[in-house]
Every structure is written in structure tokens, then in C-alpha cells.
Write the C-alpha cells for this entry.
Amino acid sequence: MIKKRDFLHQNQYLINAYDFDLNNHEMLTAITQVKPSLANAIAHDIASNGKSVAEIVDRTMGETHMQDLAKFILVSSLADVPNALLGLTLQETIGYLCEPGKDITRVKRALDEFAMRAWYLHTDRDGRLYFQNTRNLIAELNSLVDSYDNESAKKELRTFLEEKFKPTIGDCYQKVLVFPAVDEIRLSEDKVTLVIFEPYTGGSGLHPDLQKFYENEKYKNRVMFLSGSRSTMEKLLHAAKEHKAINEIISRMENDEKVPANNPQYQKALDKRDRIALELLQAARETFTQLYYPAKTGLLKADFLMEFTRNEYNGEKQIRDVLMQRQKFTIDITSDSFRKKCEDRLFTQKEMRWSDIKERAAINPLWQWHIPTALDSLKEEMLKKGIWRENGGYIDKGPFPKEMTSVQIQELRRDDETGEVILKITPLYGDKVYYEVDSVVTEASTLVENPYEFRTKEVKLSFLCVDSSGEHETGEPVEWVNKIDLKYRVYNKGTNKVVELKSIPPATIKYTTDGSNPRENGGIYEGEFIVPENCTYVIAVAEAKGVYSNTLEIKIDKERKEEVDIAVEKPLTINRRVRTNNTKETYEELDLLKKHNAKISDVIVTFYREKETSGDKGWVELTFDFSMKIDIDKLENSMDNIRSNFMDKGKININFECNSIHFDTGQNFLDWVAEKKMDLKDFKEQEIVQ
């Protein structure tokens, strides 16, 4: 009845509980007579002629630690009286196992393995291990596993693999399909799909159905397949069933039974879930060993080895790494080599539709994969740099004919009193600029002597740029048209209302007092005039050489008024110069305009720098013309960029000037006036446009 050991007659000092041979019928009968309810526990977990859990664990590890330990726990579980203390702690069991010449360093490992497979082993709140005639978590787990079919296992496996291969970064591939039917695979031009497919065990290579699908697919460069050649699906499906079962048990504990977090069974379930997840990953590692990706000669195969980092697995990263090693995926999308590859493999004609180029990226297996926005970003960059050109949805990569000469005209200053404008004349693809007043310019016309400060009061000018080297052909003349401003003043002369009009620069002024269109019905203005008694509006317009000013509508109020009427809800513009003298005043003025929802136009910001040590001076000027309404925040960002990029050292003084301020509402204007401690009387009626 005592288990025979080779050394028993020589070295046995004491007979211990683990020396009982439970595979001996008489000993088994003696033990089960003490506590008959543990018969199942003994048969399944402790001793069953090599088939019990403890015997299997020991056979795997090549020792007897687990059988010895299980017998100790069994003896401590035999008490069958009320409130009996059952079981042993881990420390106690190790203490009982100690004897000369016995290596117990691997006991904990054996016990962990045993606890994850035994059906009748339980743990109390104090951590004492004991056997009980009640199936534990592991037994329940196995029962659930037996109840699942392969379809439910595949469903669990799909969810698991979709999570492990989810495209979080989304640059290498953007979609995952796990175990789809072939006719469920739908490829698109703008997404790469990873298809995880069951291994084909009927031969070598990819499943024939997938191979046929690929050969008939248009978007060949938008799919890859992860599969294998080993028949390990049964092991994988079993692991998936265990994964489904343990999650179901934990969910029940948490949601239905409200088991506390420190409950031993709950903690054991969490540990078991971690083990099962690792086993499932390991089974997947053995199953999915080959990655097929598109190349010039068809689908190429790469060995795929799932690597774990601290029991964690990032499938997307490992797919990405394999494809980078095979140069199928690249992160180099900003260098000039990326443009050249695009032009060699996709953009193969001088001029192509952009949609056709992008479609080729999806069709041509030679094209590398990259982040989905890379091609559009390349297009924007090439167009911005002038390397490519776009016309009606077509992209032209050149070579381009030599550009014809032209002229770029910028308005730098405008004198609102005299109408004189200072222009900056920039020759494009040439070195000489000629101009003509009121007629077509030729090379016989007057040469622009000072293109950086060209002064004029003319209404129309024509400019022509010439390249004296002859490299660039002379382009068409560029016409510049001046702006005609029409101003007015209404004042009282005795009992009469008098209107005075002024055009800047000088032009013919026509006006009406009956509300009709002055262009068609207006009389010629020759000087100030008395407003007829029944007139409520004077309407005027100025014209010179076919260029018209804005049409001016002057409301005539017979009663004397000291200030202008403001409609608080309507937008309002004031045409009045605002200037500052230093940096502090500039930012205070801008903050005030921003506070009252204003935009500005006809703006000049000048930065003066003086280095305190050397005395070197310099200046930068930021100019916006009258046609642009400038957002204050964006202006300040531009000012900050200029300071940090060009004037980061030395003392800086910033002056600001604008000639038009645009308020969202009349109320914003009134609030601005009040905060500046001004009065509406300070404004001329013609300065306010509403």
C-alpha cells in the first residue's frame, strides 16, 4: 500500500503522506472510506494510473512533485466534521515536502500548472488549498468548452484576431477580414485589406480559391493574405473555445454574481484568462506563418513569425515590419526619390488625370504601400513648388515650355487726398519693363526707371516685360487700373443744404437728386450745389477712361444733426487712417480691434530693428492691399513669424497703419468708439459706410 521507491530500503527516513500509493486498490479504498465524497477528486486530479492531472503534470516536468503535493492536500482535506479546518497553505506544503536530497525549487511551477487543470482543487480566503467534491472553475470551463461547436469558436477567433491585427496606425493597411468567404472579399481603390485565411493543407502555398480571386481582381495592389501550411486549426479552435468560455465565466461573476475583486475564484479566473490568451496567441503563431503580398511576378511569400513582447502582441506592427523588410511598405514619402518612383511607375505619361494616377497605385503591384494620404500630399507639394502643373483635373509633369514674360504689380501706398499711388513693379522672366498711359504698351514705350517705387495718378496703365537675353518670349501686356474714390461733404449754408463732391484721382462726376441712376441720367458735377427742397437722396458716381468709382448714396436730412446715425445690427466700415508709433501702441490697437470683431484692410506693418551692440539697422515691411480683409489673429501670427525668423535679435519697434476697418455690426463700431474714448462727432459722415 506504500508506494515503492528505489531508495526506500536505503535512504527512507520517514513514511509521508505522499508515500501512499493511491493507484493501489486497498489504499484507495482505505482513503475513500474516510471521506467517500472525494473519490472523484482522487480519480480526476490525483491518481488514476497515469491519467490524472497530477500524474500528467509530473510526467511533463519529469518529476513527482505534483503527486506528492496533491496527496498532502488530500490528507488535509479528509476531515468530515462541521467547521473543520481544511487544506494547507503553500508554505506548509513545501515544509512537509522538505527532506534531505529532495529538490523542491520547482514545486511552485508544478502547482501553478496543476491549479490551472484540476477540477476539484479549491482555495479559501486565507489561501489554503483543499479538495472538495464540487467542481471548480476549471471543471466549469471544460464543460463550457465541450458545449461549443466550431462555428462559435470561429466567431470568437474572428473577434480575437481582429483585435490583435486592428490597424491602429492605418498606414500599411486599413481593413482586416478574418476567415471570410472568398466572395465576401471586396477590395477598394483607397484601402489595403489584410485577409486572414485558414491554412491550406491540401498542398503547398496559398489556398487555390484565394489565388484565383487574386488573379481575377482589378485592384491587385490592395490586398495581402496571412495564412499557413500546417494543420493546426483544431488546436487553434480549441484555444478559441477556452477563450470564449473563460470570458463568459468572468462576465457572469462580474455582472450576475457581483463577485468581489478579492475573491479567490475570481482571481483564479483572471489568471486563467491570461494563460488562455497566451495559449491562443501561441496557437495562432503556429497556424499563421506565411504572409502573401503583391509583387511584379504575382503574390510573393514571406515567413511570418509572431513575436510577443511581455505577453502582448501587436499584429499591425509585425505585418508592417515584414513588409518594410521586403520593401513593399515605405515611410519615405517626402524625399525626391518618392516623386521619381511615382513618375516612373504611375505618372508615366506627360499629362494624366490625377484619378488615373491614383487608380494605378491600386492596380500596379510594383507600387509600394505607404500612408493613404501620401500621393495627395505629393501632388500638393509638387504643384506648390511648380514641379507639376494642374489644368482641368489633369496633371502635367513637364518638361514645360519656357514661361513668357509678365509683370507683377503691387500697390504699396495710396494718398487718399491726392490720389497718388506708389506701385512696386516686378518683372517676371524678364529684366526690363515698359509702360504706356491710355494705350497699348510696346517696347518703344517709356521704360520704368524705378520699379520698386513707381508713382502715378493715372487711371489706367499698361505694362510690358521684356527679356533682353531672349531666353523668354515676350508675353502679353498687363493692365493696371486705379481705384477711383468718391468723397462728399454735406453742410448748411443759411437755410439750405449744400453738397460738395470730390473724386480722387480727378474724374468726371455725375449725380442725380431724384433717386435715378447717375450713370444714365446724371448731370455733370461742376462744383458744390444746393440740394433741391424735395430731395432725400443725392446719388453720385465718378468715371474716368471707362473706370467707375463706387456709387455714392447721400441721404439728405433736412434737420440739423450733430452726429451720424448708426444701424447697430448692420455691418459697418470706416475708411479712416489709424496709425501707431511703437510696438506697445501697435499691439494695444490690434487687441482692441480683435476685441470688437473687426477686420482690417489696406494695411502696412513695419518692423524696425536696431542691434544694441553694433548699431546695425534694418527693416521689414508687411503690406496688404485694400481688397483683402485681414483677420487680426492671423496678422499677429504673421508678425510673430517675422520676428522669430528674421528679427529675433536686437531692439524691435513695430509701427502699424491701416486705412479701412470692417466691423461685423454697427454696435461693434460703437463699442470700439466708446473704448477709445472718442465721439461720433469725431467722424466725418463720408468716412462711415453702412
